UniProtKB/TrEMBL annotation:
Nudix hydrolase domain: residues covered: 18-148
Top-rank lineage group of the source organism: Bacteria
Entry's Gene Ontology cellular component terms: cytoplasm
Keywords carried by this UniProt record: Hydrolase, Magnesium, Metal-binding
Species for this entry: Roseobacter ponti
SUPFAM superfamilies: Nudix
Record's keyword annotation contains Cell wall biogenesis/degradation: no
rRNA-binding keyword on record: no
Name by which UniProt lists this protein: NUDIX hydrolase
GO molecular function terms attached to this record: bis(5'-adenosyl)-hexaphosphatase activity; bis(5'-adenosyl)-pentaphosphatase activity; diphosphoinositol-polyphosphate diphosphatase activity; endopolyphosphatase activity; metal ion binding
Signal peptide as annotated in the record: none
Cofactor dependency: Mg(2+)
BP term (GO), one: diadenosine pentaphosphate catabolic process
Database matches in InterPro entries: DDP-like_NUDIX, NUDIX_hydrolase-like_dom_sf, NUDIX_hydrolase_dom
Length: 153
């Protein structure tokens, strides 16, 4: 396992940080990889859970925390970044701005019916191929399509 250091965002504002940490939540059923996608709150597009850096947490820990808050899943990440994808982020304060998402695999160990954003999002387990077709970002689609936790790095 790779040792990550916690980051510090003290003194920063959310809109100063133009990177987010994303969770590629997965499980293996009948020897097939399933990816969990959720809808965004605003546009209802299919996305992966992601969020701003959290003070005192590593990027992988932040991704796992976002997986809980946005998708209601708990799991572990080995801390390795699977890749980076770009997208346009919309905020009430700043409108649209470019953003990079660093994505971390989170092997799901439990799923809850009640979680912080349960009433705000839909979630769906799909194949890698289907997940790649459902998301809008081409770089994210490639990461989803190529993902295989059984393959050695």
């Amino acid at each position: 396992m790779i040792k990550q250091l916690p980051i510090s965002v003290s003194g920063s504002r959310k809109y100063d940080v133009r990177s987010q940490f994303a969770a590629l939540c997965y499980r293996i059923r009948k020897n097939k990889i399933q990816i969990l996608l959720i809808t965004s709150r605003g546009t209802r597009r299919w996305i992966v859970p992601k969020g701003w850096p959290m003070h005192g947490l590593t990027p992988a820990q932040t991704a796992a925390q976002e997986a809980w808050e946005e998708a209601g899943v708990r799991g572990q990440s080995d801390g390795r970044c699977l890749g980076i994808y770009s997208y346009s982020k919309e905020t009430d304060e700043n409108g649209h701005f470019p953003c990079l998402g660093m994505i971390f695999a989170v092997e799901v160990s439990s799923i809850a019916d009640e979680y912080p954003e349960a009433g705000e999002r839909e979630r769906r387990w799909v194949s890698r191929k289907k997940a790649a077709k459902m998301v809008d970002e081409p770089e994210l689609a490639r990461i989803l399509l190529d993902f295989d936790p059984r393959r050695p790095i």
